[in-house]
Amino acid sequence: MNILDRIAATKREEIALKQLVVPEARLRDSALMQREPASMKASLSARSYGIIAEHKRRSPSRAVINQALTVQQVVRGYTAGGAGAVSVLTDGTYFGGSLEDLLLARAVTDLPLLRKEFILEPYQVLEARAHGADAILLIAALLEPGQIEALAGQARELGMEVLLEVHDREELDKSPLGSADMIGVNNRNLKTFEVDLATSHSLAGLIPDTALRITESGLGKPGELRELRDSGYRGFLMGESFMKQDDPGKALKAFLKTLEA
Ligand SMILES: O=P(O)(O)OC[C@@H](O)[C@@H](O)c1c[nH]c2ccccc12
């Protein structure tokens, strides 16, 4: 079984159990349902380099990235450091994250928040909204085109935006691209964990202008971001390069300074 199938199986089990403990009605009662979501697309577009800075403690490809800092420390740092948006991994099994991390992030920033999760069911979209997310990630490799449309429609009804992630031309061709506010090209192959920025360069021209182009994973050098910007990308999803530093927010601030110099 490849990693994506394994993740999907774990998630389905997890969702079925969670629905028993926290039914949808409870989620709808969350005080955060009253909050007006912010536009991640607008926030990223307003900057020459819209950085989506990610909170990531560990990953399947790297056992420990940073376990020393609290979510609040990281997210406050990202906010002060000039991020355009913040991504919070909520998957526990593979990334050591949680929905509580999303809540804690919400409590300390006004920046748009992306719930970084393997979303398969409508329940998870409502869960994202109830815990303070402004946008959700939908991964084309995990979903049928009809599911993407349905989940994106639900996100829109709840006032959230959608970042649709693709990794190759086949996924771009089969996906309902009109459902997405932002289209992200993941430079990391989720089956092999190999990273190649050429993935983003080669797919840029195939992304419709209706969506904001985002490049994801393996980013760390200012020169690489300048080249990707020239290819049409306006959003840059970065985790490890900041998280592996003692002060991720300070690292982001220094990075943006070099980039904009
Ligand atoms: O830490 P990096 O290499 O900067 O990557 C961040 C982000 O792109 C990556 O965490 C990611 C992109 N798509 C995902 C889907 C699921 C889990 C994680 C991801």
From TrEMBL:
GO biological process, one term: L-tryptophan biosynthetic process
Keyword list, A-Z: Amino-acid biosynthesis, Aromatic amino acid biosynthesis, Decarboxylase, Lyase, Tryptophan biosynthesis
Family: Belongs to the TrpC family.
An MF annotation (GO) of this entry: indole-3-glycerol-phosphate synthase activity
Listed NCBIfam families: PRK00278.2-4
Listed pathway(s): Amino-acid biosynthesis; L-tryptophan biosynthesis; L-tryptophan from chorismate: step 4/5
InterPro entries: Aldolase_TIM, Indole-3-glycerol_P_synth, Indole-3-glycerol_P_synth_dom, RibuloseP-bd_barrel
PANTHER family referenced in this protein's UniProt entry, alphabetically: INDOLE-3-GLYCEROL-PHOSPHATE SYNTHASE, TRYPTOPHAN BIOSYNTHESIS PROTEIN
Catalyzed chemical reaction(s): 1-(2-carboxyphenylamino)-1-deoxy-D-ribulose 5-phosphate + H(+) = (1S,2R)-1-C-(indol-3-yl)glycerol 3-phosphate + CO2 + H2O
Domain of life: Bacteria
HAMAP family in alphabetical order: IGPS_B
Residues annotated as domain Indole-3-glycerol phosphate synthase: 4-254
One matching Pfam family: IGPS
EC numbers, comma separated: 4.1.1.48
Protein name (database record): Indole-3-glycerol phosphate synthase
